[in-house]
Amino acid sequence: MKALIYAALIAGVLATPVASFAQEASTGPLTRAEVRADLIRVEQAGYRPAAKDVHYPEDIQAAEARVQAQDVTAPGSSGVGGAPDGSSQAGAPTATGMTHSIYFGH
């Protein structure tokens, strides 16, 4: 009987780190698509990463603040989870004045 108790105790101790590791997997690193979407949103808020910017930290922080303000004031964003409003992207990208991607030549 003691062997069974010890075996159950050891199994429980060994299984605990596995369960905690599984919970951390949902907060993994961002995907390339998520980073690109974030860059597009910041560019739409007025930040130009290709320009020589002498006020770099202030400009990007101001653009991120504008994006944050748009997220808070956007209709349908209650800040309480749930399903997002239906939308999708299809077709060719719209012209934004740039003739090529910022990744051109890399």
UniProtKB/TrEMBL annotation:
Annotated segments matching region Disordered: 70-106
Signal peptide feature range: 1-22
Signal among keywords: yes
Biased composition (Polar residues): 86-99
Pfam families from the UniProt entry: DUF4148
Name used for this protein in its record: DUF4148 domain-containing protein
InterPro entries in the record: DUF4148
Keywords: Signal
